[in-house]
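User: Need the bound-state model for calcium ion:
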Amino acid sequence: MRILIVEDERDLAGIIKKGLEEENYVVDIAYDGEEGLYMAENYPADVIVLDIMLPVMDGLSLLSRIRKKGIDTPVILLTAKDTVADKIKGLDTGADDYLTKPFEFGELLARIRSLLRRKSNVKEAIIRIGDLEIDTRSHEVRRAGRLIRLSAREYAILEYLAYNKDRVVTRTDIIEHIYSEDFDMDSNVIDVYINYLRNKIDRGFGTRLIHTIRGTGYMLKEDRS
Ligand code: CA
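Assistant: Bound-state model below.
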């Protein structure tokens, strides 16, 4: 999943980026509000972590602009001041959540997972598709109770499919949400990874969960037919 950080404190932005990348998220950073607006409009993020006090354009103005344009990406506001008035203003402007600095990184992660679930049709930290279980906290994957070892990239693709379960996901969707912007779009690497995943997730089990939607992409779903 792709996360946009808009934060002018470069040290903090760097720490957040590093921590999120260790959790297999793809992370973009913007250091001022205008750059943040450009990124939000041109690179589809799954969650935006948005500082309020920013140069050029403040966070609330940025938020108001993207909401007016119909961009409904979940937004977590980072506030330096823990005042009720600030929180009310942020939530009324269209924020989904907020965190007061300084915050524990684990709390940011939990809030990001919560927003990712809210955006998709997933309700719990463990996503279940049939007898497949994907623990979005520990990144452990089990099928019929058996632990399945995946590479970081395989996990990222499976998690993306899982958050979008029962929906068709195109190769472009996967590339946009799993790879950083310098990725070569012509590559058929997604099909290669899907084959790896099939070998690990579906092979040897009675029912297939990873479905090819011809000419479109893929879908993770429990096939009851
Ligand atoms: Ca700031």
